[in-house]
Sequence to fold (393 residues):
Amino acid sequence: MLNDMRSGIQFRRPRAWWFALTRYRATISVARAMAIEDKHPMNMRERSGVALLPKSRRAFIRLLAMLGVGFQAFARSGDVMGAISEARTSPKTDDWPDMPHRKLGRTNFDASRLIFGCGAALSQGQAVSLLDIAFEAGINVFDVGGRRYYQDAEKYLAPFLKKTRDRVFLISKAKLYHGLDPEDAITVAQAKEGAQTWLAQMDESLRELQVENIDAYYIMGENNPAMVRSDEMWEAFLTAKRAGKVEFFGVSTHENAQNVLEAATETGRYDLAQIAITPAGWYDWNSRRMLPGTPDMVTLAPVLAKAREAGIGLVGMKAGRYLAGRRWLGWGNPDAYDHLYDENLMSAPLNSFQRSYAYVLEHGLDAVNADMQTYEHLAENFVAAATSREYFS
Fold:
């Protein structure tokens, strides 16, 4: 078996040289056509006539992941474009591990530990083909956001929901656009305006999603604890709940996150909190760096535990965002969290992004939300969430 270190997916070795050669030729035919279709030319040696595999490792993994379906389709029909279409719409998940589930706070929903983040991924419909794959593999929580921020994401999610609405937990969210700084005091008028803005966007979300109700609706990207504590926001939620539009109240935050989470915990009103947290502590969205002076996640354990004791289901986001980028640009460091990992996790067949997901899941979070726009991202994140418990005693 061939084991890919990024996705954790294994691929069986061909048993005969002729089968390997035939498979290779079919793969190159499909890949060459795919490169032309996608306008991402492969690295070709025109003089020798030898076609090389894609230059990037990510493209190579994608090719391997789709190889089984694509090759079989090509072998049946000889139709390269048909093989591409079938490979893209029917990738195999048979070898994926089982997805564990956990009660998501006081919602009592038995949620997959990986949540499909649909906002950016569906803003232009680019990841629609992954929704069914994720659902069939065991992901049953789908998080999206309103049109004002995420463009057409809710609209693109709607057809999927028509088939699955009674079997998935649906989350959407909207910003308040109040322009307040994190520690600003708020007036009643500001709180009322924020609440009205939020409710109006909720109604738009219901129309875009073509549903009668949403399981949970978040105050999105909130940085102001006073707004989180405001009675006006709570009354807005209760109004929507009485109307049958929403069942659970949530908040997401990636700036001033600890203070926002503590405020939500103190109110006793929030059912869910989505927080920008990494193995090394709080991630700051504005700077795209770790928050200066942040405690690491082990040190933050009492804060997270208190929130969970208050009935809040904790969802992580941005766990691997700091790892991305390029060092020469002054941000991004794939080894940033390695000093926090023990030998067992470091020796696991996971890449740096997968390790960060596995770590946060086993240090106080119920689930992680991931923006997944390609099959290989879905596969990588799925494996990390499904196997995280194996690496921690």
